[in-house]
Specification:
The protein contains twelve helices and no strands. The longest helix has 35 residues.
Length: 273
């Protein structure tokens, strides 16, 4: 019972909103968060592309261990780590099941494990990069590297709206439950209840999409009335807005450490092979 209560508390709507807020705003005082957003973008781009260029187990394992340690330093949300673990294990199991179903054997485990390791590296790098940047820092970084102002603002706006959307979706879902009728019998393995709740989950998205579209339109009209379109495309306004963004010695040390670490992994791989 104690484990069930803890699990219910972990997956509650309030806890979900707290985890989303922590993911967006709660990691601003970590080592990674103190770096310039352009450095974080370059770091993520490297770890998103480089795993596809090597098949060395030593290099990939070293990269994964380093990112696992960085996850601890970046204080990534437990909810995101839980979803990451479920996604990697579920996808790996599904690919292995499909392989065995179409006549494969257990020799497919190693290639699948190699593929899943690469995906895990890319996913961990994404979690670290985007969990350590608050919406304003992410928006400024995108604006600095040349992304249009409307796009960078939309991403920042989406971050800010996530807790509100989660709460509103919960209200819509509960209203459908109040007005609907649950199955009188759950059935074997609760299949009737599962189908009932899946239908409610899908139906709850439609009112949410309509209210989100209305809210977004109101926000856009408000911004246009204040001249935001001109400010997005004005170089002088961008210069003033992004004046605080500067590279520091921390960015240089961080980049140097990652380069030396990857070189060390390659040298170790050559020696052991």
């Amino acid at each position: 019972m104690e484990i069930t209560k803890k699990l219910q508390g972990f997956i509650s709507v309030e806890q979900l909103k707290i985890e989303v807020l922590n993911a967006a705003y709660g990691n601003t005082d970590t080592v990674i968060a103190n770096l310039d957003s352009r450095t974080i973008f370059a770091w993520y781009l490297f770890y998103a592309l480089f795993p596809w260029l090597t098949h060395s187990w030593i290099v990939l394992a070293g990269m994964f261990l380093m990112l696992a340690a960085t996850v601890y330093l970046a204080r990534v949300s437990y909810l995101l780590l839980f979803l990451f673990t479920i996604g990697i294990l579920g996808q790996g199991g599904m690919v292995l099941g499909v392989s065995l179903f179409f006549g494969g054997d257990l020799s497919a485990i190693l290639p699948i494990l190699l593929f899943e390791t690469k995906l895990a590296i890319i996913s961990l790098a994404g979690l670290i990069a985007f969990s350590t940047m608050e919406p304003e820092k992410l928006s400024d970084g995108l604006l600095k590297i040349g992304v249009p102002g409307q796009v960078s603002f939309s991403i920042s706006y989406g971050y800010r709206m996530l807790p509100t959307l989660i709460e509103e979706y919960h209200h819509v879902f509960m209203s459908f439950r109040l007005r609907g009728k649950a199955p009188e019998k759950n059935g074997i393995f609760y299949w009737r209840s599962a189908i009932y709740f899946m239908k409610l989950i899908v139906k709850s998205f439609y009112p949410l999409m309509l209210s989100s579209a209305k809210r977004a339109r109101t926000t856009v009209e408000s911004l246009e009335s204040r001249g935001s379109l001109i400010s997005f495309n004005n170089p002088e306004v961008k210069k003033v807005k992004l004046a605080h963004m500067k590279f520091s010695y921390k960015d240089g040390l961080f980049g140097m450490f990652n380069i030396l670490y990857i070189v060390m992994l390659f040298m170790l791989g050559i020696i052991l092979n």
